[in-house]
Amino acid sequence: MRDLPKCPECGSEYTYEQGNMYICPECAHEWTKQAIPEPIDNKPVVSDAFGNILQDGDTITVIKDLKVKGSSSVIKVGTKVKNIRLVEGDHNIDCKIDGIGAMKLKSEFVKKT
Ligand SMILES: [Zn+2]
């Protein structure tokens, strides 16, 4: 079974693949293979410490005591955080924690509830 596309220039069926290119031997036209379409929603996939996929609006529990940078506060293990928002970066969860305020957490230290 041939699944190679016809040459878009001359319509030849004798195209062949080379690396990520298609080549037409008849008119010497070369073109790149069609790129795999990117998902429109290209938000990063974020999973918790146990591999559960997290989504905006989820409630998570902190599974490790976490120091709050620049303060003496500690987010205790077991702290529930509601309505998280996923963001890009090292700290990929944007959230607000009661008594502490707006925070960014790492998904590896949380568990989906
Ligand atoms: Zn051609």
TrEMBL record:
Entry annotated with the keyword Hydrolase: yes
Q: Which PANTHER family match?
A: PROTEIN YJDM, PROTEIN YJDM-RELATED
Domain spans labelled Protein YjdM C-terminal = 46-112
Give the matching NCBIfam families.
phnA (TIGR00686)
Q: Where is the Protein YjdM N-terminal domain?
A: 4-32
* Gene3D superfamilies assigned to the protein according to its UniProt record, in alphabetical order: 2.20.25.10, SH3 Domains
Q: Which organism is it from?
A: Nitrosomonas communis
Sorted alphabetically, the keyword list is: Hydrolase
Q: Which domain of life is it from?
A: Bacteria
Q: What is this protein called?
A: Phosphonoacetate hydrolase
